[in-house]
Amino acid sequence: MTFSEDILQQIENYLNGNMNAEEIKAFEYQINENPELSDAVTINKKMRLQYGVNDWDFIKDDKSNEKLNALESLLKSNEFIEKRNAISNARDSYFKEEEAKNSNSNKSKLYYALAIAAVLVIFFGIFLKGKSLTNLEIYSNYNNWEELPSLVSRNETNAVLLSSGEDAFISKNYKVASEKFNTYINNEDEVNPSVLLYAGISQLELENFTSALDNFQKVIESKSIDKSKGYWYKALAYLKMDDRDKAQQQLEIIIKDTSNYNYKKAKDILNKIRE
Amino acid sequence: MKENNIYLNALLTSDSNIIKEIYQKNFINVERFVIQNKGQKSDAQDIFQKALMQLTVRYHKEKFEIKTSFEAYLFTVCKNLWRRELNKSKKEVTIDGLVELRTEERDIALSSLEQERWDFFQEKLELVSENCKEILKRFFKRIAYKDIAIELDYNDERVVRQRVFKCKAKLTEIIQKDLRFKELQVI
Question: How many domains does chain B have?
Fold first, then answer.
């Protein structure tokens, strides 16, 4: 299959969009008539997508694509849950360490700043009056998990996982709780947001912040009437992470709509923060 | 070569300690890449995890060998996943209102097949002559013929154009000769 340079150039022009309507019509007629030309155009198009740097060559999400279906079921299988958890655990542990490193360096900066402040206070003979609440203080005023709805009454096949998860949660055994909830979540196509909250809070208690935030985000993205709870728990997570700006962002979202979960509490906290 | 298998096996056997090592060695580079390309740290975290899931499921399905280093390949997979994400949002904007809802598992399965197809095409590009490879890489990056001529020291753009046609024909032939191409073309 060899083409004249003229035809090759036409293929280029066609794919570059450098043809006028008439030329396109004529060229497409040729493509229809000549299967070899049609192949050449197809493969040239493919090469551009594959070797280009900007586009991406997506595969069609075809329900009858067996290879695709096989990979999907493998990913959803029980044996894969363990693998997924191992990756999540490694991730959480890595980011926890990174965070600790960062906060240590922030802490030393903070000590340095405090030392300067102390010197200034003494120097000017100023005494600070009153004090504003720290992020953790705010967090511990509101980390009341008793307001979570019980999962036990749910009539489901994997109800055992939920009730044992909830038991572990209540007895503050968050590691076990989070394992049970994760297994449940990975097994279900649709997960009730309350379960995501339990899973997220367990992670929060274990200080696996990334996973915790992931779960709360999923609550926000759910279509449930409870989705605004996601913002509330995200705010708490950020407070615990000592990230006031991000916590504030979540609270600001909550106070946009009075029907949002903990609207009043969010307002109270914001008032305290802004004092 | 052996090291590549250590990491792939760790993914397969759920060895969190070694997987954590993968994070320690590679995450920062991926994060830097994503942030330099319109992304955030959280995007990088997401991409990195998806890449590991992809490698796990592919290796589980069928053992494969990484021809470069594990680090380099993981970085390529992450880069492609990020490119894919960026193009996904483009796609969603154009077919407005028709955002496809699919599970994360389905999406990872799709990305796995796409990555395998991408690998196939890269493998084929490695088979043309060094000179062709250099010229084609630039051509597909849409660098103008006259700039390719300057960069690769050709007399003028006409010569470059002829070289591009020749090299492309060679590459096309190599691709079509491989029986896998038919299979890959369907999807």
Answer: 2
